[in-house]
TrEMBL record:
The lineage of its organism: Eukaryota, Metazoa, Ecdysozoa, Arthropoda, Hexapoda. Residues 38-275 form the PseI/NeuA/B-like domain. GO terms for biological process: carbohydrate biosynthetic process; carbohydrate derivative biosynthetic process; N-acetylneuraminate metabolic process. Keywords: Transferase. InterPro entries: AFP_Neu5c_C_sf (IPR036732), Aldolase_TIM (IPR013785), PseI-like (IPR051690), PseI/NeuA/B-like_N (IPR013132), SAF_PseI/NeuA/NeuB (IPR057736). Transmembrane segments: none annotated. This is N-acetylneuraminate-9-phosphate synthase. Pfam families: NeuB. It catalyses: aldehydo-N-acetyl-D-mannosamine 6-phosphate + phosphoenolpyruvate + H2O = N-acetylneuraminate 9-phosphate + phosphate. The keyword Manganese does not apply. Its EC number is 2.5.1.57. One of its GO terms (molecular function) is N-acylneuraminate-9-phosphate synthase activity.
Length: 349
């Protein structure tokens, strides 16, 4: 199984801890101070990385699309262009945020929403680049991104399995330093649409790490994803879910994000081995409460043990493990035994 190297110390996939991305996206409201607060919150919550979205508006959208009215409660302008311009940080603001994240001590990156933004992110040397679901059908962009040979995390919302296979083929023709994230692009995603078991299919199909980018409400589905093998987890983070903006509703507050990180680590620790065995921590309970074979009645040496003569009880000291019940029946006692006495191997032949 391929591991994706994010930094000298951080790898994704295999037995490495799940890489948890706090997606700020545009939850900063276009305000760099809020963006910094979110970077700090992501660090304090224990996220592996904080992520923004970098867009060159005229590369990503047509002129007409930018001019179309954006008349809804989440809008920051009369047209979609005005709205997006309000939310877009400049390159120098990006450098400032990158530097701030380094000071705070958290990895920083962004989704490249177009080729110009991709080049910018390569230029400032982010540790990896995210490609969001908006580009899961953008084969030109995917080929371009693959040719740059930087680590990629790619979301697969809004397309079917055949397209995901195409994404895999395009990138893996160049390199294997990429992950694929299952994603459903709705804000918020109804739980019935999360189709988390797709992750199992991705795991069986692809030889690269797979993960989950979740736009549903809460943390339960994300935790399920980790239990199903997600090696990357992405969730939106917000300072306040009631703020204006499309994504706040499906985001986690800093305390929720912190709880998510804690719970992910608990799930990882608890996944363990698929081999069912008795573990050391069970020994006290075995000693205290596991049942064993005892005499159901008083019987003498030479007598046969019929089914009703042997009982299964919690006893001290213990008799034979109760799993041996069938082996004991119809055997002959070699000593006298009283009711409730533990029954051991040396008591019969
Ligand atoms: C598919 C995709 O890009 N999705 C992103 C990631 O999840 C979102 O953050 C969008 O940028 C956001 O929902 C757009 O909202 P508006 O259109 O109100 O600016
Ligand atoms: C759209 C994005 O992500 P996703 O498709 O994972 O929601 C993004 O990262 O900008």
């Amino acid at each position: 199984m391929v591991e994706v190297k994010i930094t000298e110390d951080i790898k994704v996939g295999g037995n490495n801890p799940c890489f948890i991305i706090a997606e700020v996206g545009q939850n900063h409201q276009g305000d760099i101070e809020i963006a910094k607060k979110l970077i700090k919150a992501a660090k304090e919550a224990g996220a592996s990385c904080v992520k923004f979205q970098k867009t060159c508006l005229k590369e990503k959208f047509t002129k007409k699309y930018l001019e179309r009215p954006y008349n809804n409660p989440n809008s920051w302008g009369k047209t979609y262009g005005e709205h997006k311009r309000h939310l877009e940080f400049s390159e120098s603001q990006y450098r400032e945020l990158f530097k701030y994240a380094q000071e705070v001590g958290i990895l920083f990156t962004a989704s490249a929403m177009d080729m110009v933004s991709f080049d910018f992110l390569v230029n400032i040397k982010v540790p990896f680049i995210k490609i969001g679901s908006g580009d899961s059908n953008n084969l030109l962009f995917l080929k371009y991104a693959a040719s740059k040979k930087v680590p990629l995390i790619i979301s697969t919302g809004m397309v079917d399995k055949q397209a995901v296979r195409t994404i895999y083929d395009i990138i893996s023709a160049q390199h294997k330093q990429f992950c694929l994230l299952h994603c459903i692009s709705a804000y918020p995603v109804p739980y019935e649409d999360c189709n988390l078991t797709v992750l199992q299919d991705y795991k069986n199909t692809f030889d690269i790490p797979v993960g989950y980018s979740g736009q549903e409400i809460g943390t339960a589905v994300a935790l399920g994803a980790v239990a199903l093998g997600a090696k990357v987890l992405e969730k939106h983070i917000t300072l306040d879910k009631t703020m204006k903006g499309t994504d706040h509703v499906c985001s986690l507050t800093p305390p929720e994000f912190q709880q998510l990180v804690r719970d992910v680590r608990v799930i990882e620790a608890s996944l363990g081995t698929p081999i069912k065995k008795v573990v050391t921590s069970e020994i006290p309970c075995i000693d205290k409460l596991q049942k064993s074979l005892v005499m159901g009645s008083t019987k003498n040496k030479g007598e046969i043990l019929y089914p009703g003569d042997v009982k299964i009880k919690v006893a001290e000291p213990k008799g034979l493990n109760a799993l041996h019940f069938e082996e004991v029946i119809y055997k002959t006692l070699v000593c006298d035994k009283k009711e409730d006495e533990p029954l051991n191997k040396s008591d019969f032949c």
